[in-house]
């Protein structure tokens, strides 16, 4: 069975500091990993995905994520956080079925 | 370029009433997904369609829920009769192809409140 875990419900970071939102996964085959962001009263917006190739994936708004197969992780990172990055972040994994399994979400708060 | 369109954005109804949620996927996309989001259960896949055909409805909670996709540009999710525990935000998403590595694009959601 496939699953994804976001171990932190809440992450607080000061504006200008680097941020990391953690994600680990469990799959039986090759994973396909996605990050989405949800702003209040909005739908999920696609940030980036890893399918194959370079382990470091760059996405929208300056975000990037690193696929680590040995640690089964796909942490989301940004070098310098903005207040506008405050939102709910979802990691998702797919493995060949036609749907994605989403984590429970991590609420990021960037403090001015 | 219009994204996924959902209507209504908000729906308040009384227990026992029929509720119909609507979704227009991105033009040219041939996979469509219905999700439900609650605080307790997070984001759950209810059903998805490829080329208008339901592929997996194992996430539909019970027979009170039904979904249709009569054509490539329209889908409905119906709850009859509705119950307070159905209160949630319902999202529709579409994907260009049936290839699972393609990105799903989400609509703004319908916030359903059943009194």
Q: In terms of topology, how is this protein built?
A:
The complex is a heterodimer of chains A (112) and B (115).
Chain A: E1 3-5, E2 10-14, E3 19-21, E4 24-26, E5 32-38, E6 44-50, E7 56-58, E8 64-68, E9 73-78, E10 87-94, E11 101-102, E12 106-111
Parallel strand pairs in A: 2-12
Antiparallel strand pairs in A: 1-4, 3-9, 5-6, 5-10, 7-8, 8-9, 10-11, 10-12
Chain B: E1 5-7, E2 10-13, E3 19-24, E4 31-38, E5 42-50, E6 53-56, E7 65-71, E8 74-79, E9 88-95, E10 105-106, E11 110-114
Parallel strand pairs in B: 2-11
Antiparallel strand pairs in B: 1-3, 3-8, 4-5, 4-9, 5-6, 7-8, 9-10, 9-11
How would you summarize this macromolecular structure in one to three sentences?
Chain A has no helices and 12 strands. Chain A is mainly beta.
Strand content of chain B: over 45%
Question: Biggest sheet of chain B, open or closed, and with what strands and sense?
Answer: 7 strands, mixed
Portion in beta strands of chain A: over 45%
Secondary structure class of chain A reads mainly beta
Q: Overall 3D geometry of chain B?
A: globular
Largest interface, C-beta within 8 A:
A-B, 23 and 22 residues
Fraction of residues in helix of chain B: under 10%
N- to C-terminal distance of chain B: 36 Å
Structural Rg of chain A: 13 Å
Describe the structure.
The complex is a heterodimer of chains A (about 110) and B (about 120). Chain A is mostly beta strands and about 110 residues long. Chain A has strands at about 5, 10-15, 20, 25, 30-40, 45-50, 55-60, 65-70, 75-80, 85-95, 100, 105-110. In chain A, about 0% of the residues lie in helices and about 50% in strands. In chain A, the strands form 3 sheets. In chain A, strands 2, 5, 6, 10, 11 and 12 form a 6-stranded mixed sheet that branches. In chain A, a hairpin with a 6-residue loop joins β10 and β11. Chain A is globular and about 40 Å long. With about 120 residues, chain B is mainly beta. In chain B, the strands form 2 sheets. In chain B, strands 2, 4, 5, 6, 9, 10 and 11 form a 7-stranded mixed sheet that branches. In chain B, β7 and β8 form a beta hairpin. The model of chain B has no long low-confidence stretch (mean pLDDT about 95). The interface between A and B is medium-sized, with 23 and 22 residues.
């Amino acid at each position: 069975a496939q699953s994804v875990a976001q171990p932190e419900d809440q992450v607080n970071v000061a504006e200008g500091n680097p941020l990391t939102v953690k994600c680990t996964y469990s799959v039986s085959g090759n994973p396909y990993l996605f990050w989405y962001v949800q702003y209040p009263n909005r739908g999920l917006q696609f940030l980036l995905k890893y399918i194959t190739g370079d382990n470091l994936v760059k996405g929208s708004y300056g975000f990037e994520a690193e696929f680590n197969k040995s640690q089964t992780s796909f942490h989301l990172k940004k070098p310098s956080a903005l207040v506008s990055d405050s939102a709910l972040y979802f990691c998702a994994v797919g493995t060949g079925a036609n749907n994605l399994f989403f984590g429970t979400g991590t609420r990021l708060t960037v403090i001015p | 370029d219009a994204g996924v369109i959902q209507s209504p954005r908000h729906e308040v109804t009384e227990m026992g009433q029929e509720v119909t949620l609507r979704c227009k996927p991105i033009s040219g996309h041939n996979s469509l997904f219905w999700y439900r989001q609650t605080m307790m259960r997070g984001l759950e896949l209810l059903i998805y369609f490829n080329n208008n055909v339901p592929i997996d409805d194992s996430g539909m909670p019970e027979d009170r829920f039904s979904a249709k996709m009569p054509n490539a540009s329209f889908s409905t999710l119906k709850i009859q009769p509705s119950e307070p525990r159905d209160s949630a935000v319902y999202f529709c998403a579409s994907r260009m192809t049936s290839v699972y590595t393609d990105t799903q694009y989400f609509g703004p959601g319908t916030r359903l409140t059943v009194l």
